[in-house]
Amino acid sequence: MIHFVGAGPGAEDLITVRGRRLLREADVIIYAGSLVNPGLLKEAGEACRIYNSAVMTLEEVIAVMKQAEAEGLKTVRLHTGDPCLYGAIREQMDILDRLGIPYESCPGVSSFCAAAAALNLEYTLPEVSQSVVITRMEGRTPVPEKERIASFASHGATMVLFLSTGLLKKLTDQLIAGGYRQDTPAAIVYKATWPEEETHICTVGTLEETAKAYGITKTALIIVGEVVLHQNYERSKLYDPSFTTEYRTAEHPWKQQEAGDGKD
Ligand code: SAH
């Protein structure tokens, strides 16, 4: 069995309890060495075989999995953050399907959640934004034409940009072309939850100079939108004393305006 496991954003204690158990039980670990905290490998047993996929091709990764499976061993494929975002897991799964090798996934804390935590942000503030667009600038991996930054920017929703730190001038141009102002709040979060974490609040117009000033060229997320400064939002209906929910009756039910929103 192959277990795709989310390692979390960096800090060793931000892997899930299940993920840590799988690491402890693994006979073989293949970890994404460019971003996974190597400290997590301390969880591995003495006899565990450990491979760094940063220096391997897809074919080499699969060959290791195939060999382990032939020996009846348990393999953990350790990906940074949550494997479902920019994890290149599906291509591995499709080959495993063809080979008849079973696999399952264990989620992890994505870096976009860690970046919010680093800034104490709520991405979905009432009356500011109720959506989060997770995307990236086009790099060597193309982004479909319909998913241009400018078209997402036109919604004015919160945006979190992965894999884009080296392209900030272009990013600013595209955000502004889409309708964000130069002074729309933005943030750069470098290595969220690692000891060397840095957070910098800036604006859409100053993203490039801010990254340059602090020497940030990779392993960062860009957050764009009014939620970064969290002004002018409405308080939640869920905790409003005049609002009845599934779990709580309003203090003054006669004041209740409308029912329905928010059960989480
Ligand atoms: N699956 C991962 C993302 C992998 S893509 C996740 O869920 O987080 C790699 C990109 O993620 C990096 O280029 C960077 O943009 C972002 N990233 C990963 N870890 C990060 C961290 N600790 N802090 C800030 N950005 C991070």
Automatic annotation (TrEMBL):
Residue ranges annotated as transmembrane are none
Annotated coiled-coil segments of the chain:
none
- Return any one Pfam family short name: TP_methylase
Gene Ontology biological-process annotations: cobalamin biosynthetic process; methylation
Highest taxon, organism lineage: Bacteria
Q: Which UniProt keywords apply?
A: Cobalamin biosynthesis, Methyltransferase, S-adenosyl-L-methionine, Transferase
Answer whether the UniProt record assigns the keyword Magnesium to this protein: no
* Gene3D superfamilies given in the database record: Cobalt-precorrin-4 Transmethylase, Domain 1, Methyltransferase, Cobalt-precorrin-4 Transmethylase, Domain 2
InterPro entries for this protein: 4pyrrol_Mease (IPR000878), 4pyrrol_Methylase_sf (IPR035996), 4pyrrole_Mease_sub1 (IPR014777), 4pyrrole_Mease_sub2 (IPR014776), Cbl_synth_CobM/CibF (IPR006362), Siro_Cobalamin_biosynth (IPR050161), Uropor_MeTrfase_CS (IPR003043)
List the Gene Ontology MF annotations in alphabetical order: precorrin-4 C11-methyltransferase activity
* Pathway where it operates: Cofactor biosynthesis; adenosylcobalamin biosynthesis
- What does the record give as EC number? 2.1.1.271
Similarity-based family: Belongs to the precorrin methyltransferase family.
> What PANTHER family does the annotation carry?
COBALT-PRECORRIN-4 C(11)-METHYLTRANSFERASE, SIROHEME SYNTHASE-RELATED
Instruction: Report what the protein is called.
Output: Cobalt-precorrin-4 C(11)-methyltransferase
| Species this protein is from | Clostridium scindens (strain ATCC 35704 / DSM 5676 / VPI 13733 / 19)
Q: Which gene encodes it?
A: cbiF
